[in-house]
Design brief:
With 875 residues, this protein is of the alpha+beta class. Among the domains are: 142 residues, Neutral Protease, domain 2 (Orthogonal Bundle); 125 residues, Immunoglobulin-like (Sandwich), CATH 2.60.40.1910. It is built from 27 helices and 31 strands. The strands form eight sheets. Strands 1, 2, 4, 5, 6, 9, 12, 14 and 15 form a nine-stranded mixed beta sheet that branches. A hairpin with a 2-residue loop joins strand 10 and strand 11. Helix 14 packs parallel to helix 16. The N terminus is likely disordered.
Length: 875
């Protein structure tokens, strides 16, 4: 398409002279041996401006001129030609006349491919009593509806849909809406028609077929005069019992969202289905939500308890999309955060509503806010609203900025305004824009109208500019001084970087009241205020999207002495800020390590605080571990974990595990898993005892046991085989993920070679799970260099070939593995390797990985000598 045809100057979009109104779609001749199917699509369009052509998106679809029929207001239109642009994924139907007005209808018969790469209309294999079977499902976000039928595949081009599928009479057929009719036809086939959908975007259309069964529950509230039926579908073969948790919580969440959004769930049914092969965690198709099995199914007797929380959150996140994304949709993918950031925040809000005892927002600070800040502290980060030019650019913005920074900014403004008032604004936004498309500005306008605050002005820098600030806090004779500047993980802030100014809610925690709640200048003085020796912290509950650096005086007098008195969220924020400023050079690493030594003896059994501590110590160990420092760093970590780990083991040896305290279960798993890698004799002996008696392993301890065994120098072939069985033939839903994570800790050269080879053997390791092994191999000091060499050596022939068919998989793999290196020669090796290769589809992830390596290297060079001296003294 030429520039004059583009709706906006910067991105590739379809012309606006034709607007789709309705699709009738038929899918038939489904052939699982050849992986093919046929389809017919009839598209009704309004003619908004005169045109002599129709442009449609397609991919992996065969269409000929003879297969197309076009009418305008009922009159046939002759087709001159079809022009295909496969690289840009569209074709142009050229008419022999100009269509001036009225209705246009196009009917296309086509041939297409059943995909095997978890995109478009694709199949998943699974075993049922030793027999390989298949299920079929769709994944259309962001631009893969075009793999299943020719369409105008953009979120703004909403339409209604009616779907008809012909397939095996033994199959169950599902789509967004209820079945309208079902008819048996010849040759063991049946035809299923579905009711018309509401107006929606192409990426939300969905269908699935296979040998399914379901468990059903109902909402407490009425929808269209009666409770809403909620069904959790699985393939037949013993999975349905694992659907009970989702069946229990889904109706409650639907009722909760219907209440807080002030709009009832708009469809007449809701189905959730577990899909055996799935690249993400889930997809919010309206009325038919698809899930990776471990994100929907949970078995209390077999699953790690952490997966209960995962299921609750992912179910809530996708249900939020039924309103925020499906009912109201962003206009273009540059505002993806409107979907994902909001669904992330309100997903946590729903989990907090269901399970207040989990204190889920404390974990949000560690797992979501801090992850967002880590990514956004890179030069190659991007704004929350980010330009998106084409399909491969879209996939790259499904990242921690869109999801987690987006969610964190929403948490920040909701805390400032008050959550209830903020949700009133959200409800107004949804009512105003339902069944349509909207922008960030529309959201801010609605919240501003309800709150009376200039929310768009407050949030403008947070949404439209890259990065976030660090707030420096100083204590002077006449009061406090606050200043802000952009924070970069590497500390290399230039004059250009300091031009942004953020509105910053200070949310001050102090024993004495202070009359300032925010500031939007480079610096401000708050005079006539003395802290004395009292407790003090800004960014209470760590709900603001920024880092804090206190002057040494405040840190020593007002923060560290009162560390035990702060909330979990505040303790997480203090640890994270201290670690980040050590890495950036705003503080020294030795100061951070001394701080750790000070607080560890006083730390309570608080899961989220230990989680944050473990993340930052792991990052430190990854960067600073070398042949010379390996033992001293291990000794330091042993001093952190040994006492707690042994206390837990002694308790477990005396008392039966009590599952009632969910956070205690997670705390125990966190401590033991970290200690399991540290050659602590009592910890290894306990793990070995459990491993040799597998029926005694509590689900929450499997990762610990496998990790302790796999990371030991005594790891045997028999033990390797036992853990590897959980990869090839998992005995529970989460076994493969846990086993891969543990196996990545091995130090045995023979097993390292086998594990590396499994990364490029889809028969052993499905590509959708490769990152569970790749990440620990890239972090393990005994495997990381072999992993890098193996990855580069086999990139062209295997990794790219296997993973690039679904670029999300390759992008994710590169994102979480290559960032874990720290030396210049590694940086040069990776950089030089990719200079001669096409990196479109993961260029941002690669640049971010290279950023991380530079930061790690600078951190190591700057503080290595001082760290080594400090650790030597401890020995």
């Amino acid at each position: 398409m030429c520039a004059s045809e583009l709706r906006e100057p910067y991105y590739e979009a379809l012309p606006t002279n034709l607007k789709p109104i309705h699709y009738d779609l038929s899918i038939y001749d489904i052939n699982l041996k050849n992986d093919t199917f046929k389809g017919e699509v009839s598209i009704d369009l309004d003619v908004l401006q005169p045109t002599n052509e129709l442009i449609l998106n397609y991919r992996d679809i065969s269409v000929t001129k003879e297969d197309i029929k076009v009418t305008n207001n009922g009159d046939n239109i002759k087709i001159d030609s079809i022009e295909e642009n496969k690289s840009k994924e569209y074709f142009i139907i050229k008419f022999n006349q100009t269509v001036e007005s009225g209705k246009l209808n196009v009917i296309i018969n086509y041939n297409a491919i059943i995909q095997t790469n978890m995109a478009g209309f694709y199949k998943s294999s699974y075993e049922d009593q030793g027999v390989t079977k298949y299920m079929l499902s769709t994944q259309f976000e962001a631009t893969d509806a075009r793999r299943a039928f020719p369409c105008l595949d953009e979120p703004l081009l909403k339409s209604t849909f009616k779907v008809k599928i012909i397939g095996d009479s033994n199959w169950t057929f599902l789509s967004n809406t209820p079945v309208e009719s079902e008819t048996e036809i010849e040759n063991g086939l049946k035809q299923v028609k579905f009711e018309q959908t509401p107006i929606m975007s192409t990426y939300l259309l969905a269908w699935a077929c296979g040998e399914f069964e379901y468990i059903e529950s109902f909402t407490k509230e009425n929808y269209n005069g009666k409770p809403l039926p909620v069904r959790i579908y699985t393939t037949k073969g013993g999975y349905i019992e694992d659907a009970k948790l989702a069946s229990e919580i889904t109706p409650k969440i639907v009722d909760y969202f219907s209440k807080i959004f002030e709009i009832k769930y708009p469809l007449s049914k809701l189905d959730l289905i577990a899909v055996h092969s799935f690249s993400h965690n889930a997809m919010e198709n309206w009325g038919l939500i698809t899930y990776r099995s471990t994100a929907l199914l949970y078995n209390s007797e077999k699953s790690d308890p952490s997966y209960k929380q995962k299921v609750a959150y992912v179910v809530a996140h996708e249900l939020a999309h039924q309103w925020f994304g499906n009912l109201v949709t962003m206009k273009w993918w540059d505002e993806l955060w409107l979907n994902e950031g909001f669904a992330t925040w309100v997903g946590y809000t729903a989990v907090d509503y269901l399970y207040p005892e989990w204190d889920i927002f404390s974990e949000f600070v560690s797992t979501s806010l801090e992850q967002a800040l880590e990514l956004d502290g890179l030069r190659n980060s991007h704004p929350i609203e980010v330009p998106v030019v084409d399909a491969l650019d879209i996939d790259q913005v499904f990242d921690a900025i869109s999801y987690l920074k987006g969610a964190s900014t929403i948490l920040m403004i909701s805390k400032y305004l008050g959550t209830n008032l903020f949700l009133k604004g959200v409800a107004l936004y949804l009512k105003t824009n339902k069944y349509s498309n909207a922008t960030s500005q529309d959201l801010w306008n609605a919240i501003s109208e309800v709150s009376g605050k200039p929310v768009d002005k407050l949030m403008n820098t947070w949404i439209k500019e890259v990065g976030f600030p660090i707030v420096n806090v100083g204590n002077f004779e006449d009061g406090l001084k606050f200043s802000q500047s952009r924070f970069l993980n590497g500390g290399d802030v230039s004059e250009e970087d300091t031009k942004s100014k953020w509105w910053i809610p200070l949310n001050i925690l102090s024993e004495n009241s202070i009359g300032i709640d925010s500031f939007d200048k480079y610096e401000i003085d708050y005079k006539n205020y003395q802290l004395g020796d009292s407790k003090f912290k800004i960014n209470k509950d760590t709900s603001g999207v920024y880092r804090v650096k206190y002057s040494d005086d405040i840190l020593e007098k007002n923060v560290i002495p009162y560390f035990e008195e702060f909330s979990s969220r505040d303790q997480v924020g203090i640890i994270a800020d201290f670690a980040a400023t050590a890495c950036s050079g705003n503080n020294s690493t030795v100061k951070f390590l001394k701080f750790i030594n000070t607080i560890v003896p006083k730390l309570k059994d608080d899961y989220v605080v230990w989680l944050e501590l473990g993340k930052n110590l792991g990052n430190f160990a990854n960067v600073f571990t070398s042949k010379d420092s390996n033992e001293s760093i291990k000794t330091f970590l042993q001093n952190v974990y040994s006492k707690k780990a042994i206390e837990i083991i002694e308790d477990l040896q005396k008392n039966k595990i009590d599952d009632s305290d969910f956070l205690k279960v997670k705390f125990r798993s966190e401590i033991l898993t970290k200690a399991g890698r540290l050659d602590i004799p009592k910890v290894y002996e306990f793990a070995l005892e459990l491993f040799n008696n597998p029926t005694t392993i509590h689900p929450s301890l499997r990762l610990f046991v496998y990790t302790a065994i796999a990371s030991s120098s005594n790891f045997t072939q028999e033990q390797f085989n036992e853990i590897m069985k959980q990869v090839t033939n998992p005995t529970s839903l989460d076994s493969r993920e846990l086993a891969l994570t543990a196996l990545g800790s091995t130090i045995n050269p023979e097993f390292i070679e086998k594990l590396l080879n499994s990364l490029i053997d889809p028969k052993i390791l499905p590509p959708m799970d490769s990152h569970f092994l790749g990440k620990p191999l890239s972090l393990n000091s005994k495997t990381k260099y072999k992993f890098l060499d193996f990855f580069l050596q086999h990139y062209d022939s295997s990794f790219y070939k296997i993973m690039s068919t679904n670029m999300v998989v390759l992008d994710r793999f590169i994102k979480i593995t290559l960032r874990n290196y720290s030396l210049q020669f590694e940086l040069d090796k990776i950089n030089n390797f990719f200079k001669s290769r096409d990196i479109h589809g993961f260029e941002r992830a690669l640049k971010q990985a290279l950023d991380n390596i530079k930061i790690n290297e600078n951190w190591l060079i700057r503080d290595r000598e001082e760290v080594e001296k400090f650790l030597t003294k401890l020995d």
